[in-house]
Amino acid sequence: MPSKVFFAPARVTKWRYDDSMPGKLQRLLESMDLSSVFERDEWVAVKTHFGSHGAHRIVRPVFLNRIVEAVERAGANPFVTDTVRIKGLEYLKVANANGINHLSVGAPVVLADGLFGNDNILIPAGEILGSIAVASVIHDVTAMIVCSHVKGHINAGYAGALKNMAMGGVSSAHRECGWKCGRGSMHTIGEGELAWDAALCDLCMQCVEICPLDAITFNGERLKWNADECWRCGRCERGCQSGAIHLPGDDERFMKSLAEAAAAVAGTFKPGKLLYINFLTEIQPECDCMPAADVPVVQDIGILLSDDIVAVEQASIDLILKEEHLPSSMAEGVEEGRDVFKGIHNKPYELQVSEAERLGLGSRQYELVRIQAE
Length: 374
What we know:
Blueprint: E1 3-9, H1 21-32, E2 43-47, H2 61-73, E3 77-82, H3 88-97, H4 102-105, E4 109-111, E5 120-126, E6 130-135, H5 136-140, E7 143-149, E8 151-153, E9 157-159, H6 161-166, H7 184-187, E10 195-196, H8 206-210, E11 216-219, E12 222-225, H9 235-239, E13 245-246, H10 251-266, E14 274-280, E15 302-306, H11 309-321, H12 340-345, H13 350-358, E16 366-370
Parallel strand pairs: 1-16, 2-3, 2-7, 3-4, 7-14
Antiparallel strand pairs: 1-15, 5-6, 8-9, 10-13, 11-12, 14-15
Helix pairs in contact: 1-2, 10-13
């Protein structure tokens, strides 16, 4: 039987609250009957992405607030969380600057792996990753709503709920095995040695500015890379507009490792304790962790809700592929009718979804249930 994916379109046809996006989100949540999902007084993580200094196209605080209110109406205790992506205190300041704080969302805002990003639990993760460092709060909490801003991504091609679970539920590094047990194990093959071409480098220093761990410095005109500190996020390669930096990777392995890490994170929850909300709004070409946000590549589509991560991802992709590319965006050079994310990033992103299905996370067969204002 196909999984149900509830869909609220972004288009507003009546000038009233019930037809607004926050109003439609409320109806989506009501359609799921949260009191049958969460126990009374149960702690529920509302997992999102706090954005970055300069990247503001995240899941808006008003939507997080509606989710928090719905969880509270069901009798449970919600909190909003994310894992450390830059230094912890700075990341909390970024969250606040982007409007995410206890006043705006109506619940505590916490870092899932502590201020230093190394509060995690090492668990088995499969044949590719071996073991992975799951953030301790996400590992220990009994229920979670995964709120994902759907967008493009330099490595993943497409980034939605699977990437949010995989990289957002895993720490950058473990206390003992470092980045090789964290997000970096998904990004690269083996040691993932950075290559720098001095002849191409124009000394713009964007790689230095964009690195969240200060792993890149320059000694005169020579790049110095701290391999032990680097967690292989790839920002330096993406930010280098002269093509002087390359961090090797394997696309197929990366997509499959995303699914494997997502399965490891999901495996810390009992069946039926995870919900997924995909926000198909402000669909930009890059990750929310970059230091800027480009204009959207397709029009806002709406919000999807399901208890099946594979189904909600497949539905999100299918809806995006139907959209026309927006002018004056990165999609402008992509031939109309072609997959917009493949045209921009040229990554086989569908592998993350098919692999997640193979691992038993859900089904790509779904029924789209359209929710409209009454």
